[in-house]
């Protein structure tokens, strides 16, 4: 797995980089060499925050944890990612490295696999609007996200409310 580590408005010490690489090695059993992991370290209001995103083909795994220390936040983020992988084991077995889940079959009692997805289908017209209008509409509906057609680009986009209270915009990439 290729690991990219960077600090947001800070520099990451070499000792922390080594620890991150060591902790993420445990995921090598699930993913191939072409997998990319991005780790962001940041400090917000005195709390240490670690965000890990693992990009495996078209599947993304993400965990963000904050704590008093980077070590604790890292441990929690790694546990969270492992929980996500194990919880969705059956669905992921078709995508992850062959035999990845056979190694630790005795640990299965610890993780309860998620049942079949219950999908509620809802349809509504996608009206062209600006991101600002979409945020207003999202807030009026009391939702945490809202899909819309961008009036300028005609792309289907999503606005969402972030933990910090500001907003995010998801736009399709040209890949």
CATH fold-level assignment of the largest domain: Double Stranded RNA Binding Domain
Largest sheet: 4 strands, mixed
* Structural class by secondary-structure content: alpha/beta
Order of helices and strands: EHEEEHHEHEEE
Strand order of the largest sheet: 1-2-3-4
CATH hierarchy class name of the largest domain: Alpha Beta
Mean pLDDT across all residues, rounded? 84
| β-sheet strand percentage | 25-35%
Give the name of the CATH architecture of the largest domain: 2-Layer Sandwich
Rg calc: 19 Å
Total of domains: 2
The tally of strands reads 8
End-to-end Cα distance, whole Å, is: 21 Å
CATH superfamily of the largest domain: Ribosome hibernation promotion factor-like
- Taking pLDDT < 50 over at least 5 consecutive residues as the criterion, the unreliable ranges are none
Overall body shape: globular
Give the helix level as a range of percent. 25-40%
Helices, by number, come to 4
Structural topology:
Elements: E1 2-7, H1 14-24, E2 36-44, E3 47-56, E4 59-67, H2 70-87, H3 89-92, E5 128-129, H4 131-141, E6 145-150, E7 156-161, E8 167-170
Helix pairs in contact: 1-2
Quick synopsis:
The chain is an alpha/beta fold and 175 residues long.
